[in-house]
Design goal:
The chain is an alpha/beta fold and 405 residues long. The chain folds into 2 domains: 3-215 and 340-400, Crotonobetainyl-coa:carnitine coa-transferase, domain 1 (Rossmann fold, 3-Layer(aba) Sandwich); 243-247 and 253-324, formyl-coa transferase, domain 3. The protein contains 19 helices and 11 strands. It has helices spanning 23-33, 63-68, 82-93, 106-109, 114-118, 145-151, 172-192, 194-197, 208-213, 219-226, 261-270, 274-277, 285-290, 292-304, 308-317, 328-333, 335-339, 380-387, 392-400, and strands spanning 14-18, 37-42, 72-76, 97-100, 125-130, 203-207, 243-247, 253-257, 322-324, 343-348, 351-356. A hairpin with a 5-residue loop joins strand 7 and strand 8. Helix 1 crosses helix 7. The chain is elongated, with a radius of gyration of 25 Å.
Length: 405
């Protein structure tokens, strides 16, 4: 069986994506990659704002959009008009899943909320992504990823103690929320299949701040159990030694994770400090935490005496986890990244463009990119004619009224 014809786990599932920017669309991209038919509803005109964000190709479309919009069918509908909402309602009634990431109450204002559509489509899984969730005192607050990463507790522990909390140069709150939404949707679809496939759908309520809160490991029980407040720790991690980032002679950085007991011994011997490897006080993590400054000083000096490739090779030879800090150029030239299939090539106006594969990897029903993100409303005729049975005259009327492009 060829790659193009291999079955995917979400084949036959129809998804209506309503929303823009990142969290909802990233969720839709993952579902489309693994076989779902994702119909993206965009406003007429410029469509999703991400189409025009950051670096642009020759057509004025962002390179990012080609990845984020992959495998999706774009339909334009003006949801500020009653006719646009009615067409959206018909699409939702035909679907298994809807994804929306507006402020709570917006879909209800359009008559498209979960209660509005449940009677006509009780099997619908309705995924809602917002800053603070659908209820609670903060529900109505605007919640971009940057703000939600802050209140989640994530930003507090990220950075250096004497500086402002650091933001990763990515919209990680949106992406993590999108992954949580995918998980919730798949769980809801699985639940729906029980009782001979006669189960009903349900609402999946994903909040950006809660998605980030879900990454906080032992922060809550440590505080409740002994009053410990996890503080920012720069390039280290609190309570685990040694694991840090070190500058090398050639001004490149390496990450060393030597926090296992036997790994620590091999590390310190390789770094020229056998006396530390044999020190009984450093034989376990609790003792190494007390000696963190001494250990880090020894490793800092050693790394500065060698180029980064020498450090990495020396430690790999003795099975100590160690690696470089990659930028995107490093990733795309790395043989392991390429052998693992982390880049897929699409064609934009006759020119090749590499976009990232979407994980996880499945052995028998893997995901794939069928086409890159297309133009605004490029599937209007296909969806509105074939799925909703509108004729040419009706489409012309909708265009004249500005309901569609």
């Amino acid at each position: 069986m060829t790659e193009a014809k291999r079955k995917r786990p979400l084949d036959g599932i129809r998804v209506i994506e309503v929303g823009q920017l990142l969290a909802g669309p990233f969720c839709g991209s993952m579902l489309a990659y693994f076989g779902a038919e994702v119909i993206k509803i965009e406003p007429p005109g410029k469509g999703d704002p991400i189409r025009g964000w950051r670096a642009l190709d020759d057509s004025g479309t962002s390179f990012w959009w080609r990845s984020l919009g992959r495998n999706k069918k774009s339909v334009t509908l003006d949801l500020r008009q009653a006719k646009g909402c009615e067409l959206a309602r018909q699409l939702i009634d035909s679907a298994d899943v809807v994804i929306e990431n507006f402020r709570p109450g917006v879909m209800e204002k359009w008559g498209l909320g979960p209660k509005d559509v449940k009677l006509s489509n009780p099997k619908l899984v309705y995924a809602r992504i917002s800053g603070y969730g659908q209820d609670g005192p903060y529900a109505k607050k605007p919640g971009f990823a940057s703000v939600c990463e802050g209140i989640s507790g994530f930003r507090y522990v990220n950075g250096f103690a004497d500086q402002a909390p650091v933001r990763p140069n990515l919209s990680i709150g949106d992406t993590i929320a999108g992954i949580h939404a995918v998980l919730g949707i798949v769980l809801a679809l699985f639940e729906r299949q029980k009782e001979g496939g006669q189960g009903e759908g349900q609402v999946v309520d994903v909040a950006l701040y809660e998605a980030m809160f879900n990454l906080m490991e032992g922060v809550v029980p440590e505080y409740d159990g002994c009053g410990a407040v996890r503080e920012p720790s720069g390039t280290t991690i609190t309570g685990i030694v040694p694991t840090n980032t070190y500058r090398c002679k050639n001004d490149k950085y390496v990450v060393i994770g030597g926090n296992g007991d036997s790994i620590f011994q091999r590390l310190m011997v390789a770094a020229g400090h056998p006396q530390m490897a044999d020190d009984p006080h450093m034989a376990n993590n609790a003792g190494r935490v007390q000696c963190e400054a001494e250990i880090d000083k020894a490793l800092t000096d050693w790394c500065l005496s060698l180029d980064s490739d020498q450090v990495i090779q020396t430690l790999e030879d003795v099975r100590v986890p160690c690696g470089p800090i990659y930028n995107v150029e490093d990733m795309m030239s790395d043989p392991h990244f390429n052998e693992r299939g982390l880049f897929e090539e699409v064609e934009i106006d006759g020119k090749p463009l590499k976009i990232p594969a979407i994980l996880p990897k499945l052995s028998d029903t893997p995901g794939r990119t069928d086409w890159p993100g297309g133009e605004v409303g490029s599937h209007n005729d296909e969806i509105l004619q074939d799925l909703l049975a509108l004729d040419d005259a009706q489409l012309d009327t909708l265009r004249a009224e500005g309901v569609i492009d």
